[in-house]
Amino acid sequence: MEVTHNLSAADGPVSDAKLAKLTSCRFARTDGTTNGCNDIHTYCGGTFRGIINNLDYITGMGFDAIWISPIVDNTPGGYHGYWAKNLYQLNPQFGTEQDFIDLIRECHARDVWVMVDVVGNHVGPVGFDFGQIDTFNKPEHYHDYCQINMEDFANNQWRVEHCRLADLPDLNQDNPFVRQTLLNWISNLIKKYQIDGIRIDTIPEVAKDFWTEFSQAAGVFTIGEAFDPRYDYVAGYQGPLDATLNYPLYFELKAVLQQGRSMYDLRDHYKRMGVFREQEVLGNFIDNHDNARFLHCYDNLNRWKTGVVFTLMSVGIPIFYYGGEQGYAGGDDPNNRETLWTNMNPKSALYGFVKAIIATRKTHQTWASDQIERYVDDNFYAFSRGDVFVATTNVDKTINRTISYHPYHNGEILCDVFFPDNDCILVLNGVFNVVLLNGEPKIFVPRNPSELQAHLRGAVSQR
User: Fold this and answer.
1) What is the predicted pLDDT for the residue at 15?
2) Could you count the other beta carbons within 10 Å of the beta carbon of residue 258?
């Protein structure tokens, strides 16, 4: 295994990663065709080779890690990868085994990490006909039949761990054969293909002691999905795993940016995040494949941009869901899993927007600096990381705030990374003014001295 690409929380710079989430079936086709998909409820033709052929599109935005769909063979219709049929075969719809090996090699040659989605909770929807599933083909491999109810998540953890989610046969990890098979499988999968990290589906549906063993067997960075807004509940899975997706931040951003809640709630959010062991490796996101896209729920581009700024610039691993850079606004699954090949435009304004944020994060190495709240009121929230200043709002009107608590010196010129040539402000008498128009977010950085000299020379020559 190539340690230089290992996402180990202990050994690798995980919080430095910038991760693009792809739905493998919807990203790009092998032959490069761009016609649409007739039925998005099933396979649309995206492949491993299609990803290889379009890695420039991903790295062009600045991302240095990808998270792809589960790779194992699925029961019919499992285009998303979450309906496992055979753990020991790759999904032929995505290409050959050699195609997947080539994807890993090509990514590593570009210093791009590969995180693979995996499932340890359930298999494909075969009812009670377990003979359709390879290896786990006997009733004793599964928990006794019951269905998870929504209220179970609030008050019955036993049912969450022992009953079926969406009627998917629930694996019994207390069965020694099932447990050891899953542990051996993930260990061998990682080693065979030199996978750098794994995202684990549906972690609350399995007991924590199993995830501890599973994470140890994987030997790489593990991040799990606990689809829940409760801080203490989600935080309980960091320990068994290296990290979780930051659902508390996701729900908080939706409340503040879509529902008009006070931005003071963000201050409360960061206080409550103290229950997590290590916030730096949590996965921040504003869109994903399990939820209707932000722009579907709230058709306001500047609010979406603000959500993206938060997820890419605040403490944690930034995760960006493909299609956002083209303004995708799909609704509930599967409508939020659109084909990208019909709109893969690296010159779009939103592609450039994301690129500017990632470039700022890289250039200023924001992951190495604490996140410090600098100003907050009901409609304005600002924070800094090192010499980067982030200003946001949740209203669609002109916001003007005077900032006195900041890391800069008198005479410094700060420029917005989105409009660096014509949106700059001067730090004077210990303060500077931030103006946000129509709900826009801004990210300010000090103007480089050489750039300042060039700017001054240009101003003099124009006199």
Assistant:
1) 61
2) 16
- Residue 444, strand partner residues: 389, 416
Does 232 participate in catalysis according to the annotation? no
Which helix (H) or strand (E) segment holds residue 415: the answer is: strand 413-416
Alpha-helical regions (H) of 259-392: 264-272, 294-297, 301-313, 349-364
Q: Quick one: tokens of 143? A: 């928990």
Catalytic residue among 201, 252, 287, 338: 201
Q: Which residue has the tokens 């008198």?
A: 410
DSSP state for residue 4 in the 8-state scheme: G
Amino acid at 70: P
pLDDT for residue 347: 97
CA dist 106 and 407 (Å) reads 41
Using DSSP, state whether 422 is helix, strand or coil: coil
CA 316 – CA 246 distance, rounded (Å): 8
| Model confidence, pTM | 0.93
Give the span between the Cα atoms of 225 and 186, in whole angstroms.
Answer: 17
Q: What are phi and psi of 120, to 5 degrees?
A: -120, 5
Active site residue 201: yes
Do 100 and 55 touch, CB atoms closer than 8 A? Answer: no
Residues 6+ apart with CB under 8 A from 158: none
Q: Give residue-wise pLDDT tens across range 338-366.
A: 999 999 999 999 999 999 999 999 999 99
Question: Is 379 within 8 Å of 394 (Cβ atoms)?
Answer: yes
Residue 352 and residue 17: Cα distance in Å, rounded? 19
The tokens describing 283, both together, are 């996965």
If residue 434 lies in a helix (H) or strand (E), which one and from where to where?
A: strand 432-436
**Strand-strand pairing, 432-436 and 399-403:** antiparallel
pLDDT at 458: 42
Q: Which of these is catalytic: 117, 161, 170, 225?
A: 225
Cβ–Cβ under 8 Å, residues 325 and 287: no
Distance, CA of 141 to CA of 10 (rounded, Å) = 34
Q: Which residues pair with 118 in a beta bridge?
A: 200
pLDDT of 243 above 60: yes
